[in-house]
Amino acid sequence: MKDFDNRLENLFSQRRMQTENSEMPLGHQERFLEKLEGRNTGLWHRIAAWFNDQSAGKKAAWVLSPAICAIAIVLLMAKTSPEDSLARMEQRYRLSLMEMGKELTEDSHSLSEGFKEDALYSISSITEDDEFLALQLPANLSKKEKQKIIKEYYNQKMEGLKKIKTFIAMNDGIEE
């Protein structure tokens, strides 16, 4: 037991020597005296002291940065209105419609003049829209209802283009 007490005493004396020779963090004495006097022990003061400490400030930057970024992303996503998301959805439908219309226009060149004229007129009447449907829908509809209407509208247009594709395939190389 005496051996254990001696080792423990040696450990304490070594640690005491190490702490006496090391420098205290910047502002340690002021914070200690303030705490001793009982002043400025509120939460905001402790947070400010934590940020003023060089090592703690670095920790705070690494700890708070991802949280601040996540909050910023959430706020930016929340800022987009339902109309924006509907317009983006409709834009995707319109792009696929235009791509298919362009492809069918190129395929229609193999048709005879009369069939070609009919096909090109039908393609252009389906693909050419001046305004977005999302902007024309009543405001009292929910976002889900608007999405359903837009989807059905563009699915009907795609069905029309598919019928034109079948027409082109059936009349390819046929003279009137």
Topology, please?
Blueprint: H1 2-21, H2 28-37, H3 43-52, H4 54-79, H5 82-107, H6 113-127, H7 133-136, H8 143-171
Helix pairs in contact: 5-6, 5-8, 6-8
Number of strands: 0
- Please estimate the helix content: over 70%
Structural class: mainly alpha
Low-pLDDT ranges: none
Instruction: Give the tally of structural domains.
Output: 2
Provide a count of the helices: 8
Q: Averaged pLDDT, please?
A: 78
Largest sheet: none
| Percent of residues in beta strands | under 5%
Distance separating the two termini: 115 Å
Give the CA-based shape. rod-shaped
Radius of gyration: 37 Å
Order of helices and strands: HHHHHHHH
Give your account of this protein's structure.
It is a single chain. The chain has 176 residues and is an all-alpha fold. The chain folds into 2 domains: 22-79, no CATH class; 82-171. The chain is built from 8 helices and no strands. Helix 6 (113-127) runs antiparallel to helix 8 (143-171). The termini are far apart.
